Amino acid sequence: MSCVEKMGDSRANVIRELAVGIRQLERSRLRIDREEVPVVSTGIESVDALLPHRGLLRGTLSEWISSEAGSGALTLAAVAAREAQKTGPVLVIDPDRSFYPPAARLLGLDLAE
After folding, report:
1. Residues 32, 57 contacting (CB under 8 angstroms)
2. What's the CA gap between 110 and 84, in Å, rounded?
3. pLDDT at residue 87 above 80?
4. What are the residues whose beta carbons fall under 8 Å from the beta carbon of 110, sequence distance 6 or more?
5. Which whole-number Å values give the CA distances from 13 to 2, 9, 10, 22, 69, in the listed order?
6. Which residues of 28-49 are buried (b: 16+ CB within 10 A; e: fewer)?
7. 65 φ, ψ to 5°?
8. CA distances to 6, 26, 40, 81 from 49, in Å
9. Its pTM surpasses 0.70
10. Torsion of CA 22, 27, 29, 32, to 10 degrees
11. Please, which of 12, 32, 42, 104 could form a disulfide with 80 given CB 3.0 to 4.6 Å?
């Protein structure tokens, strides 16, 4: 088998895996729509408008990724966490140890929650 044929096989496998992933996402979206999962605003109307459910789904994991320090991703995440706290507790997972509680408090997060 030539290198090109092997690459074709791996591409086909990737496409199959992506198709399976898309079907799973579509099924979960249908389930979410039927169950009426609460939607939490990010606190930023223009960001909410870009999201499929016009906000974040309560009880799901949301990851904020930035391309570089100082991009504002942590501020956006803190504002979204503040909005989510209005309907229940929020868990922050911070492997980089960049979460700064005094700033989060100033943005309105209840650190006890």
Report:
1. yes
2. 11
3. yes
4. 85
5. 17, 6, 5, 14, 36
6. eeeeeeeeeeebbbbbeeebbe
7. -120, 135
8. 43, 20, 12, 17
9. no
10. -160
11. 42
Which H or E element spans position 39?
strand 39-40
Span 43-61, pLDDT tens digits? 889 989 988 888 888 877 7
For 8, 94, 103, the CA distances from 63, given in Å and listed in that order, are: 33, 10, 19
| Alpha carbons 28 and 31: distance in angstroms, whole number | 5
- The β-bridge relationship of strands 56-57 and 39-40 is antiparallel
Which helix (H) or strand (E) segment is 57 a member of? strand 56-57
Q: In a 3-state reduction of DSSP, which class is residue 112?
A: coil
